[in-house]
Known about the structure:
Layout: H1 13-26, H2 42-48, H3 65-79, H4 83-101, H5 108-120, H6 126-130, H7 145-154, H8 164-170, H9 174-193, H10 199-206, H11 223-245, H12 255-270
Helix pairs in contact: 1-3, 1-5, 8-9, 9-10, 9-11, 9-12, 10-11
Amino acid sequence: MAGQRSRGRRLTAARREALNRLADILYDFLPLTSRFPNIVTFSSIFRESGIERYLGDPSKKDVPKKQALLKGWTEVYKKHPRLPFTLIRKIIPAAIAYRRRERRPLTRDELHRLADCLYDLGIDMRAELARVRLDESLPRITVPPDELKRRLQDHDLHPAIETEPLELFLNGHFNEAVRKAIERFEAKVQAVTGLSYYGRRLMDRAFSTDTALDMEKLKPQNREDFRQGYHFLASGMMAALRNVFSHGDEEARSPEECFEMLMFVNWLFRGLKEVDAGGSE
């Protein structure tokens, strides 16, 4: 069995209070048990050291998790001086993975509180826990491509996007769908302005004034700000998207990213004045 047995630590009032805090801190790190064998739990970690019994009978569903953790850690603390180090070293990476799946990333503050609590129990892991690498950013939700396709089909797309760009996206040609949508936008700007430039030069000329923009819904005092912002967005799109996607060797982007790009181009279309039929082509 892991850990060398000793005569046992004496539990003072201060140590009992620290053990109670330890159970509180660890409560959200991992589930106590799971019906799925591949899920790491407190029970599975204790089982690896042959001490799962310290947590009580897992078949008794009415045993509160906090009570089980307090009982288990109290027994470990009393009987196995070195085992807490081993258990914590297993719990931390498992908790990082578990909490990330739960979209509740483990935080630096939680590790600080754990380290301080362990130190109060005479278990100094402060330096070791401080070196643990954490990513506290919220993980992105991956949307299945079929769901993104449905959203696009149900969205009020500009006519220039709901034809070939949408068809390309539905057929899995995500980069090409973005490229085609931007080409359509560029053609629409040329049609509205009568200019024959391309790319950023076209955008800089087209939106140096507000004549190509639909300003009717904007208050007069906001129109110049909108024109300037729209100018920068359209010009930036030419550099960041059109120029990049014009190269056939560009790495394939994810469906989520291309979906967001199409929505952005769709919004830009809404800011342009309308022209005669066929002008957006």
